[in-house]
Amino acid sequence: MTGLLLKLIITPLGIVVSSWILPNVQFAAWYQPILLGAVLAVIGFMGELMFLGRKTKGFVLAMDFVISAAGIYIGAWVFANTGVTLLGAILTAVILVITEIFQHNWLINSGRIKKEGILR
Question: Could you give the residue ranges of the DSSP H alpha helices within 22-114?
């Protein structure tokens, strides 16, 4: 449960920060990146529950990158007056994956992920 709470804070924060520093990621309202980040956090958490283990860290990071980039790019279409280019979505996904590296290492090293993942 701690992993989900951590993701629910860091993922929206990463999208908000990327919208501040990247000119090709623009949201019309303050709640839009937070809502999009919360949805991506839940999806990412479910992926971690299914696949994350010591041997599958790289796979899960790649999966997080693809889901984040696609989710940000497509998810921005839902909101009015929001503009996210494909490059903006990819760069935002890179920022999120960098935070995921630390989260995954913490989850595995703290014993919160006890299995080796479904993919061995």
Answer: 31-51, 57-75, 86-109
